[in-house]
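Supplementary Methods. Inverse-folding protocol.

Structures were first reduced to a discrete structure-token string of length 500. This string, shown here, constituted the complete conditioning input.
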């Protein structure tokens, strides 16, 4: 009956059978018979199944259309984008740090990463000024701009930071200017805190859990002592003097896969100093990793269980106080990905690019102590591929183009991949520090597709259990109750969130 093989991905949950239609980026609930037929498990088709499939085709689903050429939509305007719409520059004011953290990408003692090591290099003010000027000159189309400070430990260069803040304020007339800093918080003395408060500088603080877990990895250089107590002392001082400012800081949590995740989660839920503060969690970076990290065999189970508790809370079956803030981001990801109509289209274009790569330097331009540009602070500074220009000469557009279109190294695989739209691989996954390679990029594909499939299943399971995204505060898209109904009528086309 189907002359052309549709570009789809079949999957099932405990409550139903689904087809992810790649062209429309919609999830369709189908009967088991249609699922088996579309999944190639049977060649026989009954009348009711034929009607169901025909209705899907009539409604614009089951196209076999695929992207014909890998080309990022921003490619044609790349020069204009980088010339006038920059949003942020992150200044690496120093490469030195007063801590030595085992999973830090810059810690030479760890030997885990292909990256530069902590050293005494610092940024001089002339280079910093040129970086700030570059941001302002290349952001005519951006009303809001941000100057970030990064290291090493940036507060080792507090006097330089103050000069940069004052200079940026003088030069950025007519712009909404903000500042941010990523710090280990061990150097937050009274003078520093007062200045950060007075200039409303956004603080992102590294904190990995209770004392015994945090101190396992975040130790002072030289003494080897843990940094937890010093951080808490500084947090108490900051909270006491500037309680409103304290509420706006962010704790950046690197979750140790060898630790007891339940212990980490309970710390951030219950410890008075941190429980009411916004938290963002990540696992240790796998980009540029030379030696894999060990993982506690119970870690994944504990980690997933906390996500399960988030779902119970959203379904009204568990009080919020029992839910880890570290895992709430996952629900937000599901919501933004699968209920956002802006991601839905009538079909794939002749050219396109998998999700993942940002426009290099446009949102998070990173400048090292020597004035060399990188797409962001998360790529390797030892990589020739990622050096996309410098503050004297501007952007190397050829390198920026290659990073933006990283999927060209795996073009045929990407054009035929069902996860095309939701791929999250940035160029760092393909970077061997010398070139962008298909081998490195394809190696990550299995994990990427598994994660997307888990998200699809989790999203549909929430719908099956009666979750109404329309009841969320500030929903991304307003859905009616009727649209959220998922019926078992096998002859009806059903989209998760929309009933056709």
């Amino acid at each position: 009956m189907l002359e052309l093989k549709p570009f789809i991905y079949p999957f099932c949950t405990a409550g139903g059978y689904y087809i992810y239609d790649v062209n429309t980026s919609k999830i369709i609930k189908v009967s088991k018979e249609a699922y088996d037929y579309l999944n190639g498990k049977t060649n026989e088709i009954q009348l009711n199944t034929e009607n169901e499939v025909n209705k899907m085709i009539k409604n614009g689903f089951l196209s076999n259309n695929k992207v014909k050429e890998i080309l990022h939509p921003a490619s044609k305007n790349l020069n204009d984008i980088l010339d006038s719409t920059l949003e942020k520059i992150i200044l690496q004011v120093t490469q030195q740090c007063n801590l030595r953290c085992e999973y830090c990408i810059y810690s030479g003692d760890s030997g885990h990463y292909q990256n530069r090591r902590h050293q005494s290099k610092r940024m001089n003010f002339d280079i910093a000024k040129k970086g700030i000027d570059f941001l302002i000159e290349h952001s005519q189309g951006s009303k809001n701009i941000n100057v970030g400070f990064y290291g090493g430990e940036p507060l080792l260069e507090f006097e330089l930071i103050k000069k940069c803040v004052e200079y940026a304020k003088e030069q950025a007339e007519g712009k909404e200017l903000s500042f941010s800093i990523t710090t280990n918080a061990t150097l937050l003395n009274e003078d520093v805190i007062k200045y950060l408060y007075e200039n409303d500088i956004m603080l992102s603080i590294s904190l990995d859990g209770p004392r015994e877990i945090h101190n396992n990895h975040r130790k002072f250089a030289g003494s080897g002592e843990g940094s937890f107590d010093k951080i808490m002392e500084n947090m108490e001082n900051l909270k006491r003097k500037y309680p409103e400012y304290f509420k706006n800081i962010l704790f950046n949590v690197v979750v140790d896969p060898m630790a007891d995740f339940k212990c980490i989660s309970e710390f951030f839920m219950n410890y008075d100093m941190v429980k009411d503060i916004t938290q963002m969690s990540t696992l240790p970076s796998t980009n540029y990793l030379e030696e894999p990290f060990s993982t506690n065999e119970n870690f994944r189970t504990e980690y997933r269980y906390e996500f399960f508790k988030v779902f119970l809370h959203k379904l009204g079956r568990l009080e919020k106080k029992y839910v880890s803030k570290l895992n709430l981001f996952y629900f937000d990801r599901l919501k933004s990905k699968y209920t956002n109509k802006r991601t839905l289209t009538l079909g794939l274009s002749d050219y396109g690019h998998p999700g993942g790569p940002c426009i290099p330097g446009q949102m998070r331009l990173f400048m090292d102590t020597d004035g060399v540009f990188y797409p962001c602070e998360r790529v390797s500074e030892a990589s020739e591929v990622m050096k996309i220009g410098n503050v004297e000469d501007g952007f190397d557009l050829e390198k920026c183009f290659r990073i933006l279109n990283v999927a060209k190294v795996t073009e045929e695989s990407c054009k035929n991949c069902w996860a095309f739209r939701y791929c999250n691989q940035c160029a760092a996954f393909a970077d061997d520090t010398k070139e962008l390679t298909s081998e490195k990029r394809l190696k990550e594909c299995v994990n990427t597709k598994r994660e997307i499939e888990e998200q699809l299943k989790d999203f549909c399971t929430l719908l099956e259990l009666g979750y109404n995204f329309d009841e969320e505060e500030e929903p991304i898209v307003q859905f009616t109750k009727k649209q959220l109904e998922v019926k078992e009528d096998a002859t009806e086309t059903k989209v998760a969130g929309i009933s056709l």
